# Entry
Amino acid sequence: MHPSAHLDSFARDHLPPPEQWPELVFDRPELQFGPRLNAATELLDRWVEQGQGQRPCLQGAGMRWTYAELQAEANRIANVLVHDLGVVPGHRVLLRGTNTPQLAACWFAVIKAGAIAVATMPLLRAGELGKVIAKAEVTHALCDAALADELAAAQAQHPVLKHIVHFRSSAPDGLEARAERQPAMFTNVDTASDDCALIAFTSGTTGQPKGTMHFHRDVLAICRCWPPHCLQATAEDVFIGSPPLAFTFGLGGLLLFPMSVGASAVLLEKASPELLLAAIAEHRATVCFTAPTSYRAMAPLVAQHDLRALRKCVSAGEALPAATRALWKEKSGLELIDGIGATELLHIFISHTEATVKPGATGRPVPGYQACILDDDGRPLPRGQIGRLAVKGPTGCRYLADDRQRQYVHDGWNLTGDAYLLDEDGDFVYQARTDDMIISGGYNIAGPEVEAALLSHPAVAECAVIGVPDEERGQLVKAFVVLREGHAPDVAALQAHVKATIAPYKYPRAIEFRDKLPRTETGKLQRFKLREPA
Ligand code: 3UK
# Structure
């Protein structure tokens, strides 16, 4: 590795041993990185230096910042971190806030100071924040004043967190007051390209969260793979969407990718389907990032909004059912760009362009990445057979001090935990999370395939399919269904519809109706919660 700029060596000390790393592949000219690199220099300062400082960069509620204004703000905050709060390169700085330009400025300040950004989801409670603080040995935090309480409670249990400063605050010791006393100039720390820039915690379902460590060069690598090949945005684009900046889907889609092409982004504190549609219309947004369920919920409301400016819509976070793709196209006229990404790989690694869409398939490896399907012994499977998705590229899994590294990385491949098959055309087709495959009466049944069939019935708003224990069949296919307004529960009709749509043995033998389904803050269905006995 290159000589580190970190004075606090926590990150390098807690990387997995080299033999447990995935193989990293830099086989493209745009993926050649020199020994020194600070991601903020490339994504932010470069534009100002090139005379583009007056271009619009970020918008939030009632505010707009140009690139020069974001730079000045990030520089002042970096000075606060270093001169007021004693941050040294390598310190872990926790970030807590809804999506706002101020949160983005804090993120760049941390990167500029050579510290490590540990962004956290706004909905986390003290207990969950405490686990992150303990695991990453977080010493400093920048926290939206509106979300102060849970972090204060976490700090009481974790004295390792010494300094919390609140932003979007009018307090005399708040971040804005401190920043005003600092100069708007800051010389970015000359970090190594393989110095850790961020630790992203997985939106894990249970137990101990996993921290994934990503370097300065990783931040740039993801900007050079999926966006130019699959998204193809320009400096005129206006990005918008729902994922939190603490979720790397949101960090890339709403901050890094727009800034990597000199475009602008609208950051929304709340992005429910109604609010997101209204904001797209208001800001004449052109590129939208959100989850499949959000597109499904927005579709029936599209006609009430002026979405003429919108030209690209990206779906990720969970499998995109063909019915949702068709519905969104029918209502908006736009073909969704689906891509599978993971916190461990930082962003999307299999995807397609609007022009190469194949409904039901995720697509092909993004240039820069390689993918294959392996059996349980790590041998490649022929086309058409379901196995474990394996990926490698310029980014990959490095868990912070975690034995689970050995489960995610095998023989240099990242194993994402997804069951996939490669079809005759060479497209990757999602089946299920490997632990969500249902085995019933000797058949392998992928829950999402049954969900897709149910979703094509007009009465179904949302659904989830799991396997429940069954004496006779081992597991039984069970569906949880949320009905659209104005439809009555009709088990037999839904069963008949599934039998007529996919192989009849896959039909849900049990169906339960619910008002809503358990989801994470990132829009992922929590099937494990449905498996727990009521
Ligand atoms: C699932 C998908 C099918 C899949 C993410 C884009 O979701 C992201 O990261 P997470 O760590 O979860 C990773 C897992 O989510 N998944 C994501 N996208 C798709 N399954 N089709 C998809 N399009 O199980 C994967 O292993 O929360 C997504 C960018 C950055 C991200 N971190």
